[in-house]
Fold this sequence. Notes:
The complex is a heterodimer.
Chain A: E1 3-8, H1 12-24, H2 26-31, E2 34-40, E3 44-46, E4 65-67, H3 68-71, E5 77-80, E6 83-87, E7 92-95, E8 102-103, E9 106-109, E10 114-115, H4 123-126, H5 133-145, E11 149-155, H6 165-179, E12 186-191, H7 201-213, E13 217-219, E14 224-228, E15 233-236, E16 241-243, E17 246-250, E18 253-254, H8 257-261, E19 270-271, E20 285-287, E21 292-293, H9 300-318, E22 331-336, E23 342-347, H10 360-377
Parallel strand pairs in A: 1-2, 1-9, 2-5, 9-20, 11-12, 11-17, 12-13, 19-21
Antiparallel strand pairs in A: 3-4, 6-7, 7-8, 10-18, 14-15, 15-16, 22-23
Chain B: E1 8-11, H1 19-30, E2 36-41, H2 46-56, E3 60-66, E4 71-76
Parallel strand pairs in B: 1-2
Antiparallel strand pairs in B: 2-4, 3-4
Amino acid sequence: MTEHVVIVGGGTGGTVLANDLADRLEPELDAGDVRVTLVNDDPDHVYKPVWLYVPFGQREPDDGRRSLDDLVDDAIELKIDRMSDIDTESQRLQFRGSSPSVDYDYLVLATGSTLEPDRIPGLAEAGHDYYSESGATALRKELLEFTEGKLVLSVIGAPHMCPAAPLEFVFMADDWFRERGLREDVDITYTYPIQRVHGNPHIAEWAQPIMEDRGINVETFFNAESVDPKAETITSMEGTDLDYDLLVTIPPHAGIDLIEEAGLGDDGWVEVDKRTLEAEVAENVYALGDTADTGVPNAGSVAHYQAGVVGQRLASEIRERPATATYDGKTLCFIETGMDAASFVEFDYENPPSPAPPSEKLHWSKLAYNESYWLTARGLL
Amino acid sequence: MTDIEPDATVDARGAACPGPLMDLIGKIRSAESGDVIRLLSDNNQSLTDVPEWVEEAGNELLALDEHDDYNAFYVEKV
């Protein structure tokens, strides 16, 4: 009997896993003992870290897009459609388009994060973001013309994709306006929901003095409640009002509704064993990347490492051997600290991060990795 | 042990910091004034994070029950 592995989501986690399985299960795929299907609702794979550079005019959104057909091994069946139902009892998926339902033996959910600005009144109308192609493009138009006034970066959603990116944005904006002789005319304020500037206390401890040195205003315990687009103010649940001329936010995030409807977890995040990445409430279901509720950052490096673990576990199960591979929380992040310097952190469940001193070398390492990312997506790096 | 009956419970046991506090804030966002939310957390950081935020936001920490391997915070949305 042919075993069918279905991966839903063609982002970093899903794509890396598909190519990992194409390599790992090559004999079984060649013999027809295993089929692997990758489902995505867009024919393109999107590399989201490119968006950070778009508002500063340094990258184009197309730099982060490649056809899945070009990236994914020919042994993988690619299905471009949007899933409409997950039934974990009968192990069957439904789709919105004309595709028939699909039965799976193993399901991997890698559907990622979606933005939900409508949760905050006024935000969709007034707020800009760089967490979507359209948002980054619209913000570029505003930022390139912005020469004076109050720039507010407000982190609203948590957890959100790439936890370092809000810090990176204000560090880059500070440097960018300085280089252009405009910094004295631009007031930069950073807001964060808890009592420090980052969720991870070690990264917060590192970033706070840099913000002080650079004259970046900080508002902690700031959970946006509403935005008034006419008055150009953002108000927090804690009762603080901030005036802005340009509002950039990290909007509320959620996973897809189908996950909650299937009873796999709250807010679209799948409740998993944080080491095996197996769903807690359904058999033969894994989740990885943002979709897996592990408490680690929603970052591409996490999805990449988790894909390797799920690939090993699936291969073991298909070969009827004990699955022993586990995820240890490994996370890697480059953190831009300006337009030509960056830091780097590496941590896991047991070992906290210790940010490296910012350097030009690390900045170029980040840009070099962004170019070589396509080798990661292909399963080669 | 308190005998307060919460209107909703957020079970954030197992979540890494600042997950429990963010889960509480998310629930308070959608709660009505006067609602009591019970937060369950086994992260020790919550013992400082939660009372600090509750005070900052002008809400009220009605009770804190300490269990063997987790704590239960009862927070009223003012």
